[in-house]
């Protein structure tokens, strides 16, 4: 795209992110496992609703709408009826194998970095809050639509890393900021090019992530084990 990128910036960002121990990704692994498990349950429910026969095309097609709603998709009528928990449960649901695979790949790539910087507890709160924020904005923007997916939470991870880069003025922080700004631009552009994607939710997750990163310190929580 004609963007000038210094040779040292990706190296500094990569060095910072690679320094995060892999054992600090346990909540990322837990979230990935939950997403896969729930997709499996919805797949079984969809197959049963279709008469019990397995059709491989279901994997790459869509989980039926009724199953999505039963498992907790964002659905305006039921939210207005008081089912506010539907702002949270859709974060863990996916419509098909491609949807699940793409979000899992990005979460696997970004999750350990954020979890390593902020610690597992803050990471989990960030993931759930930013995911819920995108469904709140989606509800306000398209109240009658049925929406699911971890995209808002993933944009929240991108947003918090952008905020981290702005708060840490060292060269490595600047490199992280530039890297994740590009992630955000590419992700939002992708959402505009693909019809049917809930772009309001992407923006909501990104803004919520930036706000979280601006307000919450990336210093790890003080625990008994951390001061030994």
The total count of helices amounts to 10
Radius of gyration: 18 Å
Shape estimate: globular
Order of helices and strands: HHHHEHHHEHHH
Q: Would you tell me the structural class of the helices and strands?
A: mainly alpha
**Most strands sheet:** 2 strands, antiparallel
Helical content (DSSP H or I, runs of 4+): 55-70%
Strand arrangement in the largest pleated sheet? 1-2
Q: Please report the total strand number as a whole number.
A: 2
Extract low-pLDDT stretches. Answer: 1-13, 221-227
Strand content: under 5%
User: What's the overall average pLDDT, rounded?
Assistant: 78
Head-to-tail CA distance between termini: 50 Å
Key words describing this protein structure:
single chain; 228 residues; mainly alpha; two-stranded antiparallel sheet; 10 helices; globular; disordered N terminus
Report on the architecture of this protein:
With about 230 residues, this protein is mainly α. Helices cover about 65% and strands about 0% of the residues. The protein is built from 10 helices and 2 strands. The protein has a two-stranded antiparallel ribbon with strand order 1-2. The radius of gyration is 18 Å and the shape is globular.
Kindly summarize this structure in a few lines.
The chain is mainly alpha-helical and 228 residues long. It contains ten helices and two strands, in the order H-H-H-H-E-H-H-H-E-H-H-H. The radius of gyration is 18 Å and the shape is globular.
């Amino acid at each position: 795209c004609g963007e000038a990128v210094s040779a040292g910036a990706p190296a500094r960002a990569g060095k910072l992110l690679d320094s995060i121990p892999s054992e600090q990704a346990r909540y990322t692994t837990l979230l990935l496992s939950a997403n896969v498990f729930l997709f499996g349950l919805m797949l079984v429910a969809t197959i049963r609703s279709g008469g019990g026969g397995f059709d491989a095309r279901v994997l790459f097609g869509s989980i039926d709408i009724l199953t999505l709603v039963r498992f907790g998709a964002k659905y305006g009528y039921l939210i207005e009826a008081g089912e506010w928990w539907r702002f949270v449960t859709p974060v863990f649901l996916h419509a098909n194998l491609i949807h699940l695979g793409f979000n899992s790949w990005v979460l696997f790539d970004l999750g350990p970095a954020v979890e390593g910087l902020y610690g597992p507890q803050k990471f989990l709160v960030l993931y759930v809050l930013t995911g819920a924020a995108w469904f709140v904005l989606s509800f306000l923007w398209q109240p009658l639509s049925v929406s699911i997916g971890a995209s808002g939470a993933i944009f929240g991870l991108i947003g918090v890393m952008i905020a981290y880069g702005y708060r840490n003025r060292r060269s490595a922080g600047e490199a992280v900021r530039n890297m994740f700004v590009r992630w955000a631009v590419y992700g939002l552009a992708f959402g505009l090019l693909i019809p049917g994607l809930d772009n309001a939710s992407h923006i909501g997750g990104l803004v919520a992530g930036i706000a979280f990163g601006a307000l919450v310190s990336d210093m790890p929580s003080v625990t008994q084990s951390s001061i030994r």
